Amino acid sequence: MSKLKQTIKIITPDTTISTQDRGLNYGDGFFTTASVINSVVEHWDLHKARLDECVQRLFFPELDLTAIEREVNHAISDTQTGILKIVVTRGAGGRGYGLPDTPSIQVLISTMPAVSHYKNWQQQGANLEISDVKLAHQPLLAGLKTLNRLEQVLIKKQMSSLECDDVVVLDYDNNVIECSAANIFAIKDGQVISPKLDRCGITGVYLSALCDKLAIEFKAIQLDELLAMDAVFMCNSLMGVVPVARIADTQFDIECSKALLTAQFAKESV
């Protein structure tokens, strides 16, 4: 795949994007969101791998990751702790949905303050309900963090009427997939389990990082199976690992959950 000319933009209040940009018109693009700690992007190699996978599967031209990394370092140079977001679009061009012959890739880089309430969730656990909005199957996009996130918008809208911190999201076969903006994993009888994401859902960078530390089995999980787990957790790049205190009417012992997870890390480190 040939390397084509790219335009790299740092998001600022006066940033302008063409009204013909394909990311704006069709969601033709992808993004990643990372935690910045001590002016360093956590799991940067995995975020780059995510960008590269999106490039390959969505037929984008090769990204100049060296140039992107240089701009990222500039953007976070004054950020001790915060959030980095990288959005990649195919730019303007093409006729309708048809791809442009020579796309002008737009890489938009921005930083934001860290989310303060995640620390409380890590200590006290998160309360979840079950979303009425379900995810459709599209294996060609499964696992990717594309700009097509209208399902998540609807999930968040429905969630706003519930008394909870987040929701468990199912697919149309009633398999557990994820939370509104985080992956789910659980422990049952000493085995770490997470939903299989081959038909829908997003493969999070933090979940990928955990695979290097835990022996995670990916499988189809029905809701009743999730409720019967010994411990349930949420995770993403910004919140890290958050124990789940409640799913609907099912309660989990937070201290027991933390102890079970600590034991899993210790077992895998031996």
Automatic annotation (TrEMBL):
Catalytic activity: 4-amino-4-deoxychorismate = 4-aminobenzoate + pyruvate + H(+)
Top class in the EC scheme: lyase
Domain of life: Bacteria
CDD domains referenced in this protein's UniProt entry, alphabetically: ADCL_like
Listed InterPro entries: Aminodeoxychorismate_lyase_IV, Aminotrans_IV, Aminotransferase-like, BCAT-like_C, BCAT-like_N, Class-IV_PLP-Dep_Aminotrnsfr
Metabolic or biological pathway: Cofactor biosynthesis; tetrahydrofolate biosynthesis; 4-aminobenzoate from chorismate: step 2/2
One example GO MF annotation: 4-amino-4-deoxychorismate lyase activity
A Pfam family it matches: Aminotran_4
Alphabetical keyword list: Folate biosynthesis, Lyase, Pyridoxal phosphate
EC number: 4.1.3.38
Cofactor: pyridoxal 5'-phosphate
Protein family per UniProt: Belongs to the class-IV pyridoxal-phosphate-dependent aminotransferase family.
Subunit structure: Homodimer.
Stored PANTHER family: AMINO-ACID AMINOTRANSFERASE (PTHR42743), AMINODEOXYCHORISMATE LYASE (PTHR42743:SF2)
Protein name per UniProt: Aminodeoxychorismate lyase
Species the sequence originates in: Pseudoalteromonas lipolytica
Protein's gene: pabC
